[in-house]
Amino acid sequence: MGHEQDPLLDNPAALTAFRAALLGWYRKHRRPLAWRDSRDPYHVWLSEIMLQQTRVEQMEPYYSRFIRRFPSIAALADADESDVLKMWEGLGYYSRARNLHRAARLIVNRHGGRIPDTREALRNLPGVGEYTSAAVASIAFDRDHPVLDGNVMRVLCRLLVVETDPRSGAGRQCLLGAAERLLARGQAGDYNQALMELGGRICTPRRPRCAVCPVATHCRMYASGADPSRLPLKSRRAPKPHYQVAAGVIWRDDKLLIAQRPAGGMLGGLWEFPGGKQEPGESLQECLVREIVEELDFSIIVGEHLISIDHSYTHFSITLHAFSATYAGGAPRAVGCADWRWVVPAELDHYAFARTDSRIIEHLRRCWE
Ligand code: SF4
């Protein structure tokens, strides 16, 4: 796109036809999803938060369970944070759950329990950024804001042949300008969901299904005959670092020790088997002994290796090596963690664990059977 006339963006008749084709397809083929049918702002907001970094198929059962447990914003605001985290267990990116809970309390205290209906007011809620505020304002309240998630960016890059990485500043500006002009004003909720769904089901990253695409006649990439999966362009990123991590399942008589991660940090508020990152020149067993002293100020004797688990986070990945260990002296203190407990195995279900630690528990249960 440049300053020359664009055959779609600068042509009112083409714009009208494009919107009609997209909306017509969506209204006929849209997936039945619980939060869409209600348009209840609480449901829309919750679904948008859960869908950040998570696929629809993975998120749906969590959404249903969450709504059953916390059927209203008031119920969510009233809950303990530990209960909210427990319902989020396994979904990852736990700051989403903590922000959702804080936001529910703010909505009850400052907005009389009703979700604000403007983008500006929505943005003042914890965990609601540029994308989520536009999505909730348009889907729940039909406010005229375009959304740009990964699916929409891919569709627009192909539709208009945008040869700039949409995650760069210039690429984003270019797409935002185009998205504003394409938007079906007055029907922004359906229009945004239609574009998201088109990107999720038809204009997919690999092998887009152009032959059945409702907007193919408006698509410049399709008209050019080039392979659409070439776009969007991606600038090279530095590879993610990978860390070796040791964790201890530490026994004292018939109880084992669990520690709670500090509230402000990554996976904050969740429980785990304590441990940490291996330092250069250190064995995993030495690493675990050192980490327990730094985190809880007591001594252990490291026993057998239990399981190793690979896990990828947004900015790095780890291999977590879990070891059995026994208490060897000292009084545990929460030095580098928020809290700690000795629990019998049956009590593990009462705490919310990060995904890697849940896998350690599954492994332990298989061994105990
Ligand atoms: S025609 Fe193909 S490339 Fe163009 S929007 Fe449709 S699926 Fe995507």
Describe the structure.
The protein is of the alpha+beta class. It folds into two domains: 12-230, Endonuclease III, domain 1; 242-368, Nucleoside Triphosphate Pyrophosphohydrolase. The chain has 15 helices and seven strands. It has helices spanning 12-29, 34-38, 41-51, 56-69, 73-78, 81-88, 95-111, 119-123, 130-141, 150-159, 169-182, 188-201, 220-224, 284-296, 355-368, and strands spanning 242-252, 255-260, 271-272, 275-277, 299-312, 317-329, 339-343. Strands 1, 2, 3, 4, 5, 6 and 7 form a seven-stranded mixed β-sheet that branches. Helix 3 (41-51) runs antiparallel to helix 9. The radius of gyration is 25 Å and the shape is elongated. It starts with 11 loop residues before the first helix and ends with a helix. The model has no long low-confidence stretch (mean pLDDT 93). The site of iron/sulfur cluster has 14 residues, from helix 10 and helix 13.
